[in-house]
Prior knowledge:
The chain has one helix spanning 298-308; strands at residues 6-11, 18-19, 29-33, 36-39, 51-54, 62-67, 75-80, 106-109, 116-120, 128-130, 134-135, 138-143, 155-157, 164-165, 178-180, 187-188, 201-203, 210-211, 224-226, 233-234, 247-250, 256-257, 270-273, 279-282, 291-293, 313-316. By secondary structure, it is mainly beta.
Amino acid sequence: MRKGTKIIKTIACLAGCTLISSACAPTLTSCARGEEALTFDDHVHIWSEWTTTVAPTCEQVGEETRVCLADGTHIQTREIPPRHEYGKDNACTVCGAALNYTRGLDCKLDESGSYYVVTGMGTCVDKEIVLPYYVDGLPIAAIGEGAFFGADIEDIILPETLRHIKSSAFYRCEKLTSLDIPDDVLNIDDEAFKGCKSVKSVTFGSSLNAIGKSAFADCFAIESAIMPDGVQSIGDYAFNFCTSLGYVKIGRETDYIGQYAFANCYNLSHVRFANGADWTISKNSTMTNSRILSISDTATNARHISSQFCECFWRRNDD
């Protein structure tokens, strides 16, 4: 969920459902259609991606909505906080508001000399971290390896200039509760968020290309993983032991899913593939002794990817 956003209303089913809880759990709705009352005892909301309906500006709150893919009628709406366009001085280029970013963090200039990398907490003891967009006029474009390893942070706001989250960057940041990956991040490397056991929601940026090995492993509280269409690869063990994970959407361009990527996700009940192509699966990375697997309904997909064929490497068959 984007930082600062909040659910402001849930629009009930057009037929008269009453939403009992915003959590997507069984027995959460009852619906009256005419004189006949129907109870969706096994209904689990499968939410679509958020769609912006009112774009935020410096001075105006925006709005976005998502719809339940299971029934097409339940809709949630939430606010998007005002959004600034920060320049090289970390001030908004439109309204002039200065970014109140966290001081004391360690940063270093990349070898190319074109951007900065956040490398550690430095002298900072804050629980809530706001990263600057620029340092000395150059963008913050990467979070370095192990930069926040085991840090006692509860919240972090990442800059829109970010492109790369390196290995173990947030390993075992056990008090983080949500992650909003900026739109221009291309890669999330191995074990980047492994062991962030309190993270419940993750919003992936639209440009994401690759999710590394064990990137979100042992994130016990994550409830859904909606991959943008551009994600091409999901590494081995990427979401292993995400025991609260209930819904996964695999992006349209994903052509590789690693071994045990969704193993031990005991509550995974729905997996939707945006691309309906068949997959070749094998227990060998060389894809020998393979078989063809067709995409099925979301419940069958979930069983295949989390248990029945979780030990396999998956490669999408191109048309």
